Amino acid sequence: MMSVMERIRTCSKLAALMVLVWAGTSVQAASNLTTPPNLVLIIADDLAWDDVGCYGHPTIRTPNLDRLAREGMRFTRGFVTAASCSPSRASMITGRYPHNTDAEELHWPVPKEQVTFVEKLREAGYWTAAAGKWHLGEALKDRFDQIKEADPSGFQLPTGKDGKPAEVIKAKGDQSGCIDWVPTLKDRPKDKPFFLWLASLDPHRDYEEGISSRPYRPDEVRVPAYLPDVVEVRKDLALYYEEITRLDGFVGQVLDELEKQGVADNTFILFLSDNGRPFPRDKTTLFEGGIKTPWLIRWPKGVKPGTVCNQLVSSVDIAPTMLTLAGLQPGPTIQGKDFSALLKKPTTKFREYVYGEDNWHDYADRARAVRSDRFKYIRNDYPDLPNTPPADGVRSLSYQAMQRLRDKGFLTEDKLTCFKSRAPEEFYDLTNDPNEMKNLANDPRFASELRRHQEALAAWTKETKDVMPAKRSPDEFDRETGKPLPNRVRPRPSKAEMQK
Q: Which pTM does this prediction carry?
């Protein structure tokens, strides 16, 4: 029989052992809770916010994007800072407004002096890779461990879980820009968290018929109110839909591979587009069709499924949010705001305004916009110029049909904005006029709201040092035919080179 002292010593040993076990368990639990998430940014190329099934489109087949919404969070007010491809991407990767990246015009490379969130992730131990469309210039390539640019000679079918094509896609080369997404995910070192920049070429023009075994019919198309409802526009939209569905198939491949690798639960995925629909009055404009895009997040470990967030968010907010999720502090160059609090509580008031800018994209242009929950104010700095779509849009079936209707006098006034000069100021009530067809800038009933938005834009202009350029960058394409002009050169000189 143990003495009292022996019992005391035994109990002490057991207590100490229990403390050690508890401490170890707690450390392990804490370690699991603080394991940084893997981060994946998927960027569509020219996809409108409402051209996805989960945003209410009745006919577009996007089962994998719909799955992101069903298993995560769908934002209803997600915006980009520019309705133009490369400036929008430059803003995302730096967390700065396009004019502060010195890459605000199309094809201007991002200067090496710019700080990106990617290099900060890499310094913190993340493996970083990019696959697909690049469009950022040469100087930023050293921020990634691996880059696989889209190769037109490639070929691959998006497949479902059973290994069979989800839809038979006849791609001549890598028109999608997505064939290296899954191979890049497979290449990653398995002992590090990872960040992937996955950038598609879909649904960017030019379009090719016959890429799908289930082509969309013209009668399945939903024609925006500001485009004429004619057969050419419907056919053009049907081809655009096919590229959206092809993109959706590759998104599904990524989701399946993450599950196969057992890392889906702690992988944060953000899907959005660099700008809106590549049609007249959409891309390169500051209307909703240009700067409002789908925003879908899935992160099983941190986001409840089926959540909807109605707060205003901007693509300038992506960089600080990625850094915060990785446990890092956003640096002084960041101009965006961390929206990670919305992942737990989507009703948290986040932004009063988002801002957008329009700069040179094939044609001279400059405009700025501020958008609140209900209203949008647009200031056109070159009001003498029409809202010409990009050159490939000018060459499109839709624009050619609009030109023909215009020349015959059949194009209604609300559909002539692509061909005529603009008002210096535009103001829209988005609640009652979601297609931005009625300019309220001169309506006295909205004078106080107009003034509030003018002041907000003026404050942002001053804060971000947004200065009018000394001269306009000239058109490089004909505004009627979309054909290159003699002054077009490639590669396009950078901002610094043009200012010499």
A: 0.90
